[in-house]
Design goal:
CATH architecture of the largest domain: Up-down Bundle
Number of helices: 10
CATH class of the largest domain: Mainly Alpha
Number of domains: 2
Helix content: 55-70%
Largest sheet: 4 strands, antiparallel
Oligomer: single chain
Shape: elongated
Order of helices and strands: HEHHEEHHEHHEEHHH
């Protein structure tokens, strides 16, 4: 089914394959959703400046036996307000309560702003991660496209070897039939034909595998165009590279900034908190201060009203040692992210230099390949002529054909290797545009 799809697929350029991968690859959608979540987190952080409003409504039926004494803070025994009951009466009354509490922190010594900075730094890191993922997928798609072209070129050379081996086979069988050559030459030629057919089958399998990889990255059945990439040589690579603009480096730089923002939050933690509070509430009860109970529905509605306005100040006096420890942890985390950035830039620089060396070697090989190919063709022609004249052996012909096939493969791949080295430089530099502009 895949082979059929590949045959029917329209030819597409390398740039079209790269564009398709950016739109289709699932990991890009994952990063995009993570970016949206980080952006929503900024909106959440901004809500910290809004006043907090809590509403309460309650209806209960309970006894009213209140006693003197202390209860340590707990969440199990309900509180009872009012005077102590002189007798232990298990009769119950209605009670109601409604209330509204508004709390607002007018200033916080920069804590909320620092928390907002963390959210924005997380959003920036998510944005950088999305850009890095897009770049990574685009580079993989470009490399897969070149691999597919290399598989195509290798298959062409392998099929040419099959044709040569079969052509020699016709000559060998004719000479053997005329008893001008031993019958063993026919068997040797059949072996060479089988080897060539196996190589051609392996080359066709490589084509299918390369198409699978392209389909995985782009979501399409792409047939590479053997155009400018296989006919022209790219211009020289840029002499200077700004590694700080590499998507990998930018992503790590945002990680450093996020770690620094988290450390600033800790710096703003050891300050008093000032909270303005306003409350309005009402209570209703079915019990009187003298212990009597009106009965009926008394207490089902509020009958005592109050309001209050005040300022609450809290200060974590004993949190200083813990804050110092948290600050030290945050500083080490920031330093670790900064060290990762330095290591990343060092690794990228080494990749650029390695790719430059590969490009220089690939260009030199490309210059020498015409001589090798011409010599291999001449050698194959001479070996075939010597064999027909009875001066050479089948072994010499087979060896010359193998050398010619390898020379044809090397010649076909030499130009692609130059483009691949250019792609590696672009990938290490973090900018595929100059590379894509050359391949058209």
């Amino acid at each position: 089914m895949l082979a059929l799809c590949v045959q029917l697929a329209p030819a597409q350029t390398l740039r079209e394959a790269v564009d398709a991968s950016i739109l289709a690859y699932p990991s890009i959608r994952v990063s995009d959703e993570q970016l949206k979540a980080a952006a929503a987190n900024i909106t959440l952080a901004r809500t910290a400046w809004l006043p907090r409003t809590d509403f309460l409504g309650q209806v209960n039926r309970a006894t009213r036996n209140n006693v003197y004494g202390l209860l340590l803070p707990q969440s199990t025994i309900p509180n009872i307000s009012g005077p102590v009951n002189p007798v232990n009466d298990l009769g119950s009354v209605w009670g109601t309560a409604v209330g509204l509490l508004v709390s607002w922190e007018p200033f916080d010594f920069g804590l909320r702003g620092a928390s907002l900075d963390v959210a924005e730094a997380s959003r920036n890191r998510a944005q950088a991660s999305l850009e890095r993922t897009r770049f990574e997928v685009a580079a993989l798609a470009a490399d897969a496209y070149l691999t597919a072209l290399a598989a195509d070129q290798t298959s062409i050379a392998a099929e040419a070897q099959v044709k040569r081996a079969r052509a020699v086979g016709e000559i060998v069988r004719a000479l053997a039939k005329a008893e001008l050559r031993p019958g063993a030459d026919v068997s040797r030629n059949e072996s060479e034909i089988a080897v060539a057919e196996i190589q051609a089958a392996q080359a066709r399998n490589a084509i299918q595998q390369s198409r699978v990889t392209l389909h995985q990255l782009t979501g399409k059945d792409i047939q590479p165009v053997a155009g400018a990439i296989t006919t022209m040589v790219p211009d020289a690579a840029p002499t200077t590279v700004n590694l700080a603009n590499n998507p990998y480096a930018r992503e790590q730089a945002t990680s450093v900034a996020e770690a620094e923002a988290r450390r600033r939050v800790i710096d703003r933690s050891y300050y008093p908190r000032f909270i303005l509070q306003g409350a309005s509430y009402a209570r209703g009860t079915g019990a009187n201060p003298d212990g009597s109970t009106p009965g009926g529905a008394a207490g089902l509605g509020p009958n005592i009203y109050n309001w209050a306005v005040g300022l609450t100040v809290t200060f974590p006096a004993m949190d200083l040692p813990a804050i110092h420890a948290r600050k030290e942890i945050a500083e080490h985390q920031r330093a670790a992210e900064a060290a990762r950035y330095d290591q990343l830039v060092t690794d990228l620089s080494a990749k650029v230099e390695t790719a430059r060396n590969q490009l220089e070697t690939a260009r030199r090989v490309l210059e020498l390949m015409p001589r090798q190919l011409e010599a291999a063709r001449a050698s194959e022609a001479q070996a075939s002529a010597r064999y027909r004249a009875g001066l050479g052996t089948m072994v010499e012909v087979a060896e010359a054909q193998r050398i010619l096939t390898q020379a044809e493969i090397d010649s076909a791949l030499a130009r692609l290797n130059v483009w691949r080295a250019m792609l590696q430089i672009a990938a290490a530099a973090g900018d595929l545009k100059p590379f894509l502009d050359q391949v058209h």
